[in-house]
Amino acid sequence: MELYFDVISPYSWMAFEQLIRYKDLWQLDLILHPFYLGAVMKASQNQPPGLNAFKAKYLMEDVKRLSMYMQLPLTQPSNFFTGAMFSGLQPMRMMTAVQMAHPDKVAAVARAFWTRLWSHDQEIASEQGLLAALKLGGVTEAKEQTRLMEMMKSHEVKERLKAVTNSAVEMGAFGAPFFIAHINGKKEVFFGSDRMEVLAFMLGKVWMGPCPDQNTLKLKLKQKQDNQHAKVKVTELERGQRDGDGEHEQKKQDEADGDEQMKKQKQDEKERERFFVEFMKEAFVYKKERDPDWIRSNY
């Protein structure tokens, strides 16, 4: 999983945090690529939302809602549309220097930049802002901070940032966040922090919302409840089977009793026939002895 991001973009922060939260759950090999959003916009002939009055207004309200939904401390920077929006180049050069010198600190330093700008309404492009983000991100030694400050100005860092940005554009990037999932040897390209559920579908993973830690607990509770319900259903089924077996046995017994009763009825009928025949024989003999003429008139 490759994430191309710019710390000037709040939606990049949202995508970043969601992928970090799902990294272990989805067993992601997450690779972070700092790129320069301004150059992406220019190359793709796109326009930042802050330059469109309608988009800018929507962005302000959207950030408030998403702050609650994503459980991120997002606050609209006071000068975002007049200054902060155009100050992303220096932070991204610093991010590139950090990636080259301390790849294990890329996530922490990126989060530090986002926190300063989008939580504390602090600038991130001055030397003071850059150093504060490094310190907050775990680069605490003054000597190493100075080295990175010099490194970010180097031709090597500038060319590396250009190369990564151009690579993203060639793959179709037109904004941030831009991420690529490698699925069965194929590259699946996604744009936007709101595509995680689709990403989960493509990966064959379970999406549990933007905060899976809390939802995992809810899921486990639901699974426990489902298991309890399943046990109850099994018990009811077993009871039903027992009741059904009892009914079946009762039915067999009833059928047997019915057969026995019918057999007894037939025996009774035969007994009555035998009795009638014997009675008629005796009556015939009695009548013959007393009235011979009756016999001749009837036989």
Describe this structure in words.
- This protein is rod-shaped.
- The chain is built from eleven helices and four strands.
- The chain has two domains: about 210 residues, Glutaredoxin (3-Layer(aba) Sandwich), CATH 3.40.30.10; about 90 residues.
- It is about 65% helix and about 5% strand.
- The termini are far apart.
Strand content: 5-15%
CATH C-level label of the largest domain: Alpha Beta
The end-to-end distance, rounded to whole angstroms, is 114 Å
Question: Domains counted in the coordinates: how many?
Answer: 2
| Shape-level CATH architecture of the largest domain | 3-Layer(aba) Sandwich
Order of helices and strands: EHEHHHHHHHEEHHH
Measured as a percent range, the helix fraction is 55-70%
Low-pLDDT runs = 294-299
The CATH homologous superfamily of the largest domain: Glutaredoxin
Radius of gyration equals 43 Å
Count, helices: 11
Number of strands: 4
Walk me through the topology.
Layout: E1 2-5, H1 10-22, E2 31-34, H2 37-43, H3 53-70, H4 89-101, H5 106-118, H6 127-136, H7 142-151, H8 155-170, E3 178-183, E4 186-191, H9 196-203, H10 212-290, H11 292-298
Helix pairs in contact: 2-8, 4-5, 4-8, 5-6, 10-11
